[in-house]
C-alpha cells in the first residue's frame, strides 16, 4: 500500500515539473481489492474526536466531509432576523458551513463594557448566540474567527477605537495589549465553547488571530490566544489563516515553534480582474510547510473589494463583477482531501479547482488538493454607520454570490451545482493527485488533472483551458484509465470545452443503493439521491454539446427512454458496458432515462440544471438536518429560483412534501418525491399538481405581483451647524486638554493640547472641534494639519465665517492647510472661535501605521502675533462610545452633527416647526453649512413578498463637492461622496422599516460646491428582483431609544409593532 502511495506521489512531482502526464499503473484487480484502511493516521486535538483530520480531509463525527464554507459577517446585516434568510440561501445552494468574524469593537465600546463581559445584547446584530442558533437551524457547520484582530475592511480591523490609546504596540505580547484583549477573548471563547460540536452546537473549527506572522514577540501572543481558547473549554481544532496562499508556514503544526492544529492560507487570485490565469502553486506550497494537514485556504476570493474612486461613479461599484461575469459562479475547489469552505479551503492530496464557466469569475485551482474551502465573501452586506475602514465605502457587496440586497445571483447557481456534487461524491474526499498536464487530451490547449481514490478506484478528471483568459472553444478527446482499461473518450464525437469552462468528469463512479457504476461520463454529475428504492442521478453539460455516458452491468439491462425531446438518445451494449449518447439542448424538457428497475437518469443542459435543487429531508438526532450525519434523504425540485427546505409529514395516511421556496416569476415546478405522496404544499399552501408518466409531480405556481415603490413626499429642513457661531454654548462638549499621547508613532506636530478624538472616547462619525483664543488683531491665518483617513474631508470656520475646505483624496489620510483670516472677522480683545468640522472615515487596519493612527487635528497654530489657543472643545457622537443613548443601533451609528445629537435622525422626532425645503431639484444647499432634511413616505410592501429595495442616488456633476449621510428610520445606511464616487446605492435596512406602514428618511450632506448644490434625481427608488416566499422568520426587529430635542434622556423604546418613519439629512461644508 505505502509503496503504491509513494510511487504516486513521486510521479506527481515528476509530472508537475515536466508538465508531461505520468501514469501509475493500477490494474482493475488491484483497484477492486485495495483494502479500505486509511492511508494516514487520523489526527485530533487530543481533547475530542468529534473533529479529526489527516492529510486528505476533515472528518466530522467519523464522516469524511468536504467543507464548503461561506463567509458572512453578522454586523453587516444589522437586522438579525435576516440571518435566517441568508443561511437558508447558503444551505440551499450547496454549502455546508459558514465562516464568520466576530467584531471586538462592536461588543466592547469601552474596556469595561458589561462589567468586562462585553455587549452581546439579544435581538441585535451583536447577538452572536442568535447568529449561531440560526446557522444550526439551517443545518450549517460553523468556523469561528474572533481575532482578536480580524482585518475584514472594517473600522480598526475589529479593534475598538480605544485600543490605539494603549501604551506600546498592538498585536504582540505587549502587556498593555494583552490586558486589553483578554476580557473580550475570554467572553467570546466561552460562547464558542458552549456552541462547539461536542456540546451539540455547530462550531467545528476556531481560528486564532488572522493574517499574522511568527516572531519573538508574536509567538508568545499567539500562544496566549491558544491558551485562552483551551482555558475556556474549547476542544475543537484551532486553525490559522496565513497570507499569500499559505506559502510561509506561519504557526504550522509541521514547523518549529508555536503552532495551531490546522494551518490555512488565503488567496484572492483574481483581484479586481475579471479573468486571470490559474495559480498552480497551492499544492506545492502547502506540501512544503504543512504536509500533515489537509490543504486549507481559509479565504478564497469570491469577489474583491472596491475602494473609493476605483470605478466610475454610480451604482454600488461592484456591478463589474456581476455584469462581466454573467451566468456563473465561483467554482468549487476540488481536491481529494475532502473539506471545502467557501472563500476558504482546507485540503491536501489532490487539486483545488475553481470552475471557469462561460463569462464567470471562476478559477480552477488544479494544483491544489483542497477539501476545505471558504469563499470570501459569499455575502458581503453593508458598511452602515461608521463600521467601514478608510479604504472602503458603504457597499460591501464584494461581487459576491449573494449580493448586498440579499439576492442570490448567477454565481450561486454554479456553486450549487458544484456543492451538490461534492456532497454526494465521497470518493473525492480521499483522492490523490496522480498527474496533471496538457498531454491527457488530443489538444495541447486543454489542461487536465487526474485525481484518484486508491481505495475505491474512482477517478476524477478535471479539465480546463490551459490558457484561462481567452474564450476560444476547444474540441478534444480525453485519455482516461478505468477499471476496464485505458480508454479515449468520447468514443463518438468530441469533448467540447468552452473558453471559460471547466469540467469534472467522473470515472468508475458508484452511486445509489443499487451500486450502479458509471465507467465514464463526458457530462458532469450534479447530484444523486434514492427515492422509493430508485436511484436518480442528474447529468448535465453546456447547451449545444453532446454527452456520452457508459455504465458497467453484468448483463444488458432494459433501457426506457422517456421524455427525450431533442436529445436524440441512442444506446448500445457491448461486453458489459452500456453506453448512452445524447445531445444537450437549451431549455429542453428534462430527458428521463430508466435503466432497469432501479435507476433513472435526468439529463439536461447546464442552464436547466441551474434551476434544480436537492433539499434535505430532516432526519433525527442532534444534527438531524446535516447531510451525512443526520440525514442523506433528499427530494429533487426543478424550476424555482430557490428551494429553502422540504419536509415529508404524514397526513391522512399520505405523505405531504412541504416546500419552502422562492420564485422570481410564475414557474412550472417539477418534483421527484416518494410515490406515496398525494399532495404538495408550497409555502404552506396546497397547490394543484399533475403526475407525469415518469413519476414526478408538476405544478404551475404564480409569482408575486409587481410592486410599486413610492415617490418622496414633502421634505422638512433645518440648519444643523449652530456650532460655528462664536456665541454657541459648548460647555457640554468635552474639554480636550490632554497634553500626552500614546500615539508616539504619529505625535502632535504643533499646539499645546492633544486633539486626537480616540483619546476622548469618540471613535467614528463627524467630529466638531472648537478652539478658543483672544484676538489681538495681529492674527492673519491658521495652520492646520488634520488626519481623518483616506477620502476624508474637513471645513474650517472662524467666528461663523467660512475659511475653506479640503476635499480629501484617495491617497492621503492627512492634510496640512493654511487658511487666511478675512478682514473684519476677528473680535479684538474678545473670545474668538475656530471651528473645524471633520468627516471621520473610520480607523485604519494594522497594515497602516500598525493600527495606531489618530483621528482629529494633529497640528494647529495661529499665524501672526503671539496669540495661542486658550482651550479646545470637542464633540463627537452624543455620549461618545461609553454613554451613547441608542444602545440598540450602537455607538457607531451616529456622528457628532447637531441633528444627530438631538435625535433628529430617529423616527418620531417632532419636525413640525421645521421649514419646508427639499434637497432635490429646485432646492438644495445655498451656502457653506449643514442642512438636515427629513421626509416621510409610505412603503406598502406585501407581507409575504421579499422586496430587495435600494435607494438610488444619481451622481451630480463631479465638481459639486458634497458629502451625504443617509438615514432610514434612525439607521445610517451609509455615506456618499460625490467627487470621489461610490456608493450611490443604499440598501433598505429591513430592521428599521415596516413592510406595511410609514417610513422616515433623513439625510445629512457635506457640500463643497462652487455653486448652489442640489441632489439630482434623489426622489426615486431602484429595486432589484423580488421573490415570493413565506416571511415567517423575517420579523422586524426595530427597537431604539428616542430622546427629545436638546435633551440627553431617552424617552421611550420603539417596538417592532410601532409605526416608524424615515429621515434624511444634508450637510454642506463649503462654497468657494
Automatic annotation (TrEMBL):
Signal peptide start-end = 1-24
- Cite the entry's keywords alphabetically: Glycoprotein, Glycosidase, Hydrolase, Signal
Positions of transmembrane segments: none
**SUPFAM superfamilies of this UniProt entry?**
(Trans)glycosidases, Beta-galactosidase LacA, domain 3, Galactose-binding domain-like, Glycosyl hydrolase domain
Which InterPro entries does the entry link to? Betagal_dom2, Betagal_dom2_sf, BetaGal_dom3, BetaGal_dom3_sf, BetaGal_jelly_roll_dom, Galactose-bd-like_sf, GH, Gly_Hdrlase_35_cat
Q: Name one GO molecular function term.
A: beta-galactosidase activity
Domain named Beta-galactosidase is located at: 427-612
Which enzyme type, at the first EC level?
hydrolase
Among Pfam families, the record links this protein to: BetaGal_ABD2 (PF13364), BetaGal_dom2 (PF10435), BetaGal_dom3 (PF13363), Glyco_hydro_35 (PF01301)
Its Enzyme Commission number(s) read 3.2.1.23
Q: What's an example GO BP annotation here?
A: carbohydrate metabolic process
Query: Which reaction is this enzyme known to catalyze?
Result: Hydrolysis of terminal non-reducing beta-D-galactose residues in beta-D-galactosides
Domain of life (superkingdom): Eukaryota
Per the record, the similarity remark reads: Belongs to the glycosyl hydrolase 35 family.
Q: What is this protein called?
A: Beta-galactosidase
